[in-house]
Every structure is written in structure tokens, then in C-alpha cells.
């Protein structure tokens, strides 16, 4: 099986540079999915299974030991909404991680599809119908991560992958897309809940980091909940922006989103997105992070609640998640418990591997 022996030599292999051709035969490169200064992610095919290969260029600032930490964190996890590790190998100073599945978008680019005029109505409707499920799916994933005494420490839209779920799309359009938490590069794993409370300098993405992380104060699992709350807010804004411009007490108004009129308006109207960006720039010090503009962001949330009554409970939930006081934030377990009945796909166990379609060209 690919997940047990992708290489024929076990899940982890140390290759020499002379083995490059053999590796290329096993892993057929399809396309580049993304890159940074220290890593490149490619789509590769291995025994008809399409995988994402993340190759990390190790050096004195990013050692192999540090890169292997990411694999260790991911290997502890087994959840339907967490990217799974299939195998690893080294070649020279590079470490490559093979992961499943290959995504079509990250959450940031996925949300942008709503406002692209080239997005056809049926595809657009599948996107919009999938979004409400993401609240429960992501809550369940973070609960699982925390139950393994792991802090992700970098939850943000760019680290949340979205894949088109073609197997169920025809029967359940609301499940046409599936989310996965990825990129455990700066995660940390601990032996106990008490040990998750740490302090001192650490890496983070400022825009989505909790106040205690930015201030290098003592922080624990609630820091992930804060970041998840920021992500929830951006999903909420994408949905609320498309609601009828007439206040209603009925959540059923959501279904108005599913007609062509809403689709056409989406191409011209991004008022809430623009307002959110202005809110994040209201800080006098030029700090556009959520934690630096919490009062303005909370006021922004309250305004949405007045205009879109159907979202009031979700808004209250997000407001608690991004509280400046870590003790006032709900745990991931509480969040997952609320959304449990609404997200039947959130089961223990990663996705089974599916063969990629045969190329008929």
C-alpha cells in the first residue's frame, strides 16, 4: 500500500543524490503548487495516487531536525480534516514530506472565488453551500489536534487547504468542498495539558496571532482558538456580505444566496470585505493584526449582528473566540461539541487514498 511503503523501501528513505532519477520515476512531478524561500510544494503522482510533496531546503537556520519536527507533529494526528503524512525522504540537504490530499485552494484563495466573475453559477453555488460546514469541520480538526497535546501555533487561511470533493458533490452540494488543516512547521507537542502553557519568544503570523503570543506572554491552547476565531470571522464576512440587504430574523434567508441574482451581485459587491480591511487598519500604529484592533473588530461584529440577525449566535461565538482574555475563549472541544450534529463528516480517521483519474490524452 502507498501509505505504508510508497518507495518500496519503507515510509522514510535516505536517498543519495545519485538516486534522483529513481526518485523521479517513483514520484512523477505534475505541477508546482506553491513555494517560499525555504520550501517548494509540488503535486506528484505515486502509483496513481496524487500527493503533495513539500521539499524543505535545510540549512543552518532550518536544520533537518527542525524540519523533521513537522513530520512528527503530523504523524500524531489522524483526522478527516487534517492533512496526512504518507512518507518522507532526504536527499542531500533537502527533506521531502509526502502528504495527502492535494488541495485545489487554500482558504484565502477559495473565498476569493466568490467574487471572480469567471466563476460559473453552479460552481459558485457549490462554494457558497460548502462554507457553513467549515465552521464545524475546522472546530473538529482543532479539537483533535489539541486532544493530542499539540498546539498548531499558525492557524490562518493560507494554512487551511480546500479540496473539491467530487465523490459526493452530485448528491450533496453542501459537501462539494472539504477543508484540511495543514502546515505544522512551528507546531509544538507536549506530554500534558499543563505543559502546553509556555512563554518566551516564538514564531507566529502577526495578523492572526493571539495577544498573548504577540506580547510573548504565557500562552496555551486558547491561542489557537483565537486564530481560528479570526478565520471564522473571514468566512462569516464572505457569507454575510451576500445576504439580502433587508434585515430578517430568519436564517432561511441564507437560501437566497443560492439563486443567480445573488451570484450576479457577488461580482460587484465586496462591501463587508472592504469594511473589515479598513477596520484592521484603524490602529494608530499601523498594525493591521486582529489583536491590535480588537475593540474595532468587536464593534464590526456587532454591526453585522444588527444587520444580519440570522448570524447572531455565530457572531457571539466568534466574539468569545477572539476575546483578549484567553480564559474567556471557548475550548476547541466546546466548539466541536456545538457543531457536531451539523458536521457528520468530522470523524476520527484521515481520508482513504483515492487513485487519480487516468490520463486519456
From TrEMBL:
InterPro entries, alphabetized: Kinase-like_dom_sf (IPR011009), Prot_kinase_dom (IPR000719)
Positions of the Protein kinase domain: 27-301
Lineage: superkingdom: Eukaryota
Any Pfam family: Pkinase
GO molecular function: ATP binding; protein serine/threonine kinase activity
Listed CDD domains: PKc
Protein name: Kinase-like domain-containing protein
Species, as recorded: Massariosphaeria phaeospora
Lineage of source species: Eukaryota, Fungi, Dikarya, Ascomycota, Pezizomycotina
Amino acid at each position: 500500500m502507498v501509505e505504508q511503503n510508497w518507495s518500496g523501501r519503507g515510509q522514510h528513505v535516505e536517498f543519495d543524490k545519485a538516486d534522483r532519477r529513481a526518485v523521479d520515476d517513483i514520484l512523477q512531478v505534475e505541477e508546482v503548487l506553491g513555494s517560499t524561500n525555504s520550501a517548494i510544494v509540488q503535486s506528484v503522482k505515486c502509483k496513481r495516487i496524487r500527493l503533495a510533496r513539500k521539499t524543505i531546503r535545510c540549512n543552518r537556520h532550518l536544520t533537518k531536525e527542525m524540519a523533521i519536527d513537522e513530520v512528527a507533529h503530523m504523524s500524531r494526528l489522524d483526522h478527516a480534516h487534517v492533512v496526512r503524512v504518507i512518507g518522507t525522504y532526504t536527499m542531500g540537504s533537502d527533506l521531502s514530506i509526502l502528504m495527502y490530499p492535494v488541495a485545489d485552494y487554500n482558504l484565502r484563495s477559495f473565498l476569493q472565488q466568490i467574487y471572480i466573475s469567471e466563476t460559473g453559477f453552479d460552481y459558485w453555488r457549490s462554494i457558497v453551500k460548502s462554507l457553513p460546514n467549515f465552521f464545524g469541520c475546522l472546530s473538529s480538526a482543532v479539537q483533535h489536534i489539541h486532544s493530542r497535546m499539540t498546539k498548531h501555533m499558525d492557524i490562518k487561511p493560507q494554512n487551511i487547504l480546500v479540496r473539491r470533493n467530487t465523490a459526493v458533490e452530485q448528491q450533496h452540494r453542501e459537501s462539494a468542498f472539504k477543508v484540511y488543516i495543514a502546515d505544522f512547521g512551528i507546531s509544538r507537542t507536549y506530554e500534558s495539558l499543563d505543559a502546553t502553557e509556555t512563554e518566551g519568544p516564538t514564531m507566529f503570523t502577526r495578523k492572526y496571532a493571539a495577544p498573548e503570543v504577540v506580547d510573548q506572554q504565557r500562552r496555551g491552547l486558547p491561542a489557537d482558538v483565537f486564530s481560528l476565531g479570526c478565520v471564522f470571522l473571514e468566512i462569516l464576512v464572505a457569507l454575510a456580505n451576500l445576504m439580502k440587504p433587508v434585515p430578517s430574523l430568519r436564517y432561511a434567508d441564507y437560501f437566497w444566496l443560492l439563486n443567480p441574482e445573488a451570484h450576479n451581485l457577488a461580482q460587484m459587491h465586496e462591501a463587508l470585505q472592504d469594511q473589515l480591511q479598513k477596520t484592521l487598519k484603524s490602529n494608530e500604529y499601523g498594525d493591521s493584526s486582529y489583536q491590535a484592533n480588537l475593540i474595532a473588530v468587536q464593534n464590526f461584529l456587532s454591526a453585522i449582528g444588527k444587520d444580519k440577525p440570522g448570524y447572531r449566535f455565530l457572531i457571539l461565538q466568534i466574539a468569545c473566540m477572539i476575546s483578549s482574555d484567553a480564559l474567556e475563549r471557548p475550548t476547541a472541544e466546546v466548539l466541536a461539541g456545538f457543531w457536531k450534529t451539523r458536521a457528520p463528516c468530522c470523524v476520527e480517521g484521515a481520508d482513504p487514498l483515492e487513485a487519480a483519474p487516468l490520463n486519456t490524452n
